[in-house]
Amino acid sequence: MTNSSFRAVYETEGTYDKLLLRHFYGGTEDIDLVADWLTAHYVAPSGALRVVEFGCGTGRITEAIAPYAGDLILADYSTTMVAAVAQKFPNARTICADTSDAVTSLLAANRRASFDLVSAFWSLSYPIGEFFEELSPAGVRPRRDQAVATGQARKFVGDLVSLVAPGGHLLAMLFDAESPEQQLVTRAWETVAPFPDGGRAYTRHVLVDALRDAENRGDGTLTHTRLGGVAWAPSRDAAREWFFGVHFKHHPQLLGDPQLEEAVEDFIDEYRTPEGGVALPSGVHFIDFHAVAHPHASLPEELAS
User: Where would I find the Methyltransferase domain in this sequence (predicted)?
Assistant: First the structure.
């Protein structure tokens, strides 16, 4: 399976939006979680923030961010996705590149410490994971030196942080790899190739550990929240396509596995609602790194002055 076929779900116009399920955490949809965070930190849209969103997709969550931005950069590796957001947000600058390359290009363009908000929603696991594994015609293959991969991935996170202006935020959302839905996905992909130590959660561990190190250096403060919820499929067929089209990318080895087929069908049946929909148990990790200097960042104002 080649890299292009693996990414086909993101490259075919309209496919990803058609297959994407709505996600709710504590009764709040993921896009509203971001909208609530923006309201809590910036009150009302000012149209003045400098914002970059990596892995923007077709701009679903960008809808919440755009009213706050005066300088908006949207990056995605998919030409299809970039074309979609360019049409939706004509005043934004777009970058068609993998996230790691997009970060490198912004640093080369002297954008270090220049963004009030650096964001990535549901997408950071991919650029982090690419340091640890690669796609080849034979399938997914772990890179030989995992220690080197860890160092490269942590440097990448450091580069993300370096884009944030003083007082700004790095904001990310990642799926919870320990949720029942994601555990099923992990078991399936483990039949294709092993994951690094820590299973599919390793990308989150790399991100959080690197941000914790940045906090310890005094570069900012880390807030990490895990919320439980559901991915809502309006029908059994929609749930099935979510697994095989989005999670499994129509990988031939997975499509031809009768045991996996049975496991997915049983899982869907377990979480069907009386109305015929499917409430797949899910979880999100909401990660906010605030670029403020220690120790004053954590002291009451009367002590910090």
Answer: 51-126
